[in-house]
Design brief:
This protein has 178 residues and is an all-alpha fold. It has one domain.
Length: 178
């Protein structure tokens, strides 16, 4: 007898996140006053951040992956600005795709630093910000939102058993698994 694997596929998870995001956008634009819509809608960002981290772990061409996300930013920014601010260009607030792309860049920076085996004190400042307590879970419009996708690859290394010595030492230093 084979065991049935429980869980959601990546596609099902994306559809769930899209539905949550739709609820949040409906609450913010067409149907205000239904707080439950925004409460469910706020589940979308951590799911999308997780998807970005998974995409980074499984991509064979980082530049192409990054460019695809940048293309989504370009396509979605004008409609976002028109809907939220009534103008085609509003430079003071970008849509969530920019936050996710910056998260992807933080994952890449942390990964490159980790491959060079630098101590945390020698890391570039943007990579060190991720390890300030509280920033890992802050909202998406703050620095922690940008850096929240960076927490997923490290937590995956922990759940995989931390097989190599460097991962065990790195995880112990950062406290990411505690």
């Amino acid at each position: 007898m084979t065991k049935r694997k429980l869980g959601l596929s990546a596609t099902a998870l994306r559809w769930f996140a899209l539905g949550c995001m739709l609820l949040d956008h409906l609450w913010g634009t067409i149907i205000p006053g239904n707080e439950w819509m925004t409460c469910l809608g706020r589940l979308a960002f951590p799911i999308f951040a997780f998807q970005v981290a998974e995409g980074y772990l499984h991509t064979h061409d980082f530049k192409s992956y990054s460019n695809r996300i940048m293309l989504c930013i370009i396509i979605s920014e004008i409609p976002f600005d028109l809907m939220m601010f009534g103008t085609a260009f509003y430079p003071f607030h970008q849509n969530v795709m920019m936050t996710l792309w910056l998260g992807l860049m933080s994952i890449h920076t942390i990964d490159q630093v980790r491959k060079k085996r630098l101590h945390q004190a020698d890391w570039p400042a943007p990579a060190r910000l991720h390890y300030i307590p509280g920033l890992r879970t802050a909202g998406r419009s703050e620095c922690g939102g940008i850096l929240s996708p960076a927490g997923f690859p490290q937590s995956q290394a922990c759940s995989a058993g931390c097989n190599d010595r460097h991962s065990r030492v790195w995880i112990r230093r950062t406290g990411i698994c505690i």
